[in-house]
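Limitations

Structures in this collection are predictions, not experimental determinations, and the ligand pose is part of the prediction. Treat each record accordingly. The example that follows, with zinc ion as the small molecule, is included so readers can see exactly what is and is not provided: the inputs are given verbatim, and the output is the predicted complex.
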Amino acid sequence: MVECKEILELLSELIDGELEHGLEAEILEHLGHCECCSPFIHTFKRTVTLCRSIETIDVPEEVHEEFWQVIRVEIRKNR
Ligand SMILES: [Zn+2]
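Predicted complex:
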């Protein structure tokens, strides 16, 4: 089982599409069921879509930064 803290550590790799397929599927399943993680699943999905759709545009750094700011806020709320 993947735990919430592991998910948070793996999110950036997940966004970059660097995780092996099995692990990615496990994380996505966790995000779909876990109440702790559900608050930011929407943001996560939006960010993945953004990151993958703007590869040819010059702003991925900003998108990453915006994403992590949101995630940090959500993590604090859930503690
Ligand atoms: Zn979780």
